[in-house]
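Researcher: I'm preparing a figure for a lab meeting and need a structural model of a single chain. I don't have an experimental structure, so a prediction will have to do for now. The sequence is pasted below. Please return the structure as tokens so I can convert it later.
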Amino acid sequence: MVGLSIAGAASPMLMDMSIAPVIAQKKAQNFGLAESAAVLYVAQNQLKTDFNDLTEPVDECTRSGTGMAINISCTFGRDKLAQTVTRAWVMPPPPPPGQSNSGNQFSVPRPDGEYAFWRLCPANDPWGVNGTNQHFVEDGYICVPVPAQGGIDPDDDMSTWLWDLRGQGLG
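Model: Understood. Here is the structure written out token by token.
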């Protein structure tokens, strides 16, 4: 009789404990969905240089930002199970005038220095011309441009290159 009284008094706590793993599992699932949506959106848009060129986010996500700084917030789930993830990035600046390439005429001379296989140009400065290489000028090495980071293929579209990457030991 005493044992039943104790179990009856403790039963609300036992009920909470019994569904806690299910709640945690659903929250983790919602977090995974929110994280995936946010990371996918950033991956699709991080190299775009104009806010108007960004793709529209899915219904569960909202985009905000001023200038070149962009935030994407994704929420999955409802009420107590809702999980929100926010990712932010800075859009790369557009290339300076005269640094576009057309007709395979390279518009920028290759910077002085050797390519450093350990120094890759970042996505927001894919050629190192917007500050990356200037930051490391004292050691004589320059970053490997984004188009060359996977190796040079003879069939690569060179119309987007700022300088000739062939014959530089990057292939």
